Amino acid sequence: MNIFRLTGDLSHLAAIIILLLKIWKTRSCAGISGKSQILFALVFTTRYLDLLTSFISLYNTTMKVIYIGCAYATVYLIYMKFKATYDGNHDSFRMEFLVVPVGGLACLVNHDFSFLEILWTFSIYLESVAILPQLFMISKTGEAETITTHYLFFLGLYRALYLFNWIWRFYFEGFFDMIAIVAGMVQTILYCDFFYLYVTKGQGISL
Amino acid sequence: SLNINPKDEL
Fold first, then answer.
1. How many CA within 13 A on the CB side of residue A44?
2. What ipTM is given for this predicted complex?
3. Which of B1, B3, B4, B7 best tests the A interface by mutation, with the highest count of A CBs <10 A?
């Protein structure tokens, strides 16, 4: 554990909690892509199956359970509890355009051709592009509420901090995972355009 | 030695 990973994890947690609270407090999921949230629930489910097979630390287990629980709670709020406020017409990105190629890539490029390893690889690749339905929705409606931009900022910041974590771990621990690093770079690059808007416009974005 | 792909991250 180093400072970049810890702040990365906390940034990720902040993003998830901000989104949940926003939906809960406003009783609305307007402007939020349910499809991105389904993809994130799928990401956590496929990555954290190792909860059943190995124990790493109390911190690790606790965070995994919180991430999975929050992901499914968010999907529940969007598609069940506050379904009437869900803007399905503007959430038109096709999930299969991400899931199918990513699934294929995970089968082709992985560390080990085993069930759990392929699901882990799938989750890493899928996470890198899971935000695309949300970014697509914002580009379609041409605007994002302030709180939604805070959510995206912390979600993007998390993977950027992980990049620093991997540099740290390479130098001090000899840790090196090409799959995670390349996917993490792709993921961070996808947020760059948004980061620019967030910093220059500060609050709610309107294109 | 390089320690490749430990699954201790989130």
1. 22
2. 0.82
3. B7
